[in-house]
User: Fold Replication initiation protein from Microlunatus elymi.
Amino acid sequence: MLVDLTTDMVRELAIAERVCIRPLLRRVLDRETGTEETVPIPCGSTLESVCPSCAHKARILRMQQCAEGWHLGTEPDQDQPDQDHDTEENGQEDEQDHEQAGDESDRRVRSTRRRPDVVDLPRVAAEDRTIGRTFTSPDGHEYRPSMFLTLTLPSYGPITDGAPTDPESYDYRRAAIDALLFPRLVDRFWQNLRRCAGYKVQYFATVEPQRRLAPHLHAAIRGAIPRQLLRQVIRATYLQVWWPSFDRPVFVQRVPVWDGTGYMDADTGEVLPTWEQAIADLADDPDNRPAHVMRFGSQADIRGIIAPSEEADRAIRYLTKYLTKAIAEPLTATDEDVVVDERRMAHIDRLHAQLRWLPCSEHCANWLRYGIQPKNPTPGMQAGHCPSKAHDREHLGVGGRRVLVSRHWSGKTLAEHKADRATVVRETLHAAGIVPPEVERLAADVTAPDGLPRYVWTDTRPGDAGEYRKIIFAAIQERRTWREQYDAAKIITAPVDNQPAIDRDGGGPSP
Assistant:
């Protein structure tokens, strides 16, 4: 049978069976028996374009993580934070911004009182809880509603079919800066919301691209918050970036060079100002203004969600819809909702041209283009070649995590959620009297009688297409066997009332 299958056919079959199509191969030597075997290890990619099978598993795992923490009725374990927690505790306060200049004893404090052009934020007493309140209906039924929120960025110009109507007037520079700083604005929003909601708001959020390429945020929020308060917090949230000016590049044709301790102008020999010096100059300027101010757009979707319900399940699927795609992937011909044309591709190119040269952080190499040394400079830095993926054409400014999970969402790490799924399968097999696959099979910590590892692992690669087909086909057969065993175990362990009619009376399944 394998002789009649081409490599493409085996790959398509692997995708249909949810088997990794680009596994990492390891050759394992059993020192006791002297036998060797090749073991495929799933690549673990989260992108469908790289490995659809592994990306699907990653999305399913995220869906489980979202569902377990969204409508909790009891406080989660707060001693063990989630793996992908947010960074709000490392954020800056609204009332004042501390900039380091010189040593620890020389701290400059810049007042950043709230801007007069934004609404005020209410302050309420904070309760030590993370779960939402319970509401009782007139018929005595109790509900614990939660929220589904979508936040967007403002408009940068009219859009038609996902591309600017007039590219010349479209504000690409501001769109690029907002995309680079979007995570900071989101952090500020959660800070403000927790102060105004009166409890430790928990969320599971994903960052996705809109058709116009601007990032937006979908968030599952635990607990019910008044819509009016949410809209007030959205309007009142802003981000001021106190950076040196980066409006006009200083080095376009020339390139600063490393002199052993910092960067200097190769023509004049003048050492470029350090980051600390540039910030100190700003602090000493009484008329200095933030280099950039950003806010959310006027469009925001706010919905109440009650679980368990089909609406909650649908919201989770929507929340994780694009996690298996790169930021630019929904704009390719494979997306049935988007037609790729020259206008759209030109739109991507213009935005990427801005993202390549703008600074993404205090440590970005692009500061050299504006005549300033980045914070903590190192040799080899070059403007236009910052290693942050935010500058890549594939990410279009979104360089951080695509999934943002608050510290006390479910009380479990992502690895623990994955282990829970495996435990359910193994316990079901045990209950049905089926021996599950050995978890410790070929484990590196299994020792031989001499006290040394019994199994020796080494890297390897498939020798040819025939060996690749053989390895993938064996993995497909193994997965089919496991699935058949699990399906049979579920039938055996299921309650009698939930068993299919074919098991009870020998006839066909119930209509």
In short: The longest helix spans residues 465-493. The chain has two domains: 2-43+441-501, 70-252+271-359+389-412. Residues 82-109, 496-511 have pLDDT under 50 and may be disordered.
